[in-house]
Amino acid sequence: MFQLGNTLVSEELLEAHFACDLSQCKGACCVEGEAGAPLEQTEVDRLAKDYEAIAPFLDPAGRNAIAAQGTSIVAKDKSLETPLVEGKACAYATFDERGWAHCGIEQAHQAGAVDWKKPISCHLYPVRVKEYSVFTAVNYHRWQICSSGCANGAQKQMPLYRFVAEALRQKFGSDWYAELERVASEQNKKQ
Length: 191
Prior knowledge:
The protein is an alpha+beta fold. The chain has ten helices and ten strands. The chain has two domains: 1-18 and 126-191, no CATH class; 27-117, no CATH class.
């Protein structure tokens, strides 16, 4: 781990290679797991405000889940999350004719219906951010369903931190990301 401002960053962000390979995983991260996508309070507010613009991009099952549960939920541990369809897929996931999962919020963004891409936790994945009282932890979350992303990243020699560069800039700012690039460059010189 190394410190950047008030963040503690796992060196795995610099060492691991990753690039999503949707043709292999088919968007499994939107379907698998035991909980919805983590949300920040600002995203909860945006989902409530923008839901009518997002709804046309969602599958009927997702709209039904949101009608029953709300645009976001509070989990047992008090964290904020997206609702799920029958305990599985994110309610905002849509499925194309091949059965591949896509983000309905992102589709609404691409169509110009909303001015934000998707929840930052989804945009950052497989990087996970955990807020503590005095620092923020930035870690690589390894999950077997993303093994094709690891293989694809290794083949392309795509460092994980560069794969999620846009999301890291969005979350922490351009200055923070520039410092991360500097640390990565220094680490590469040592190898």
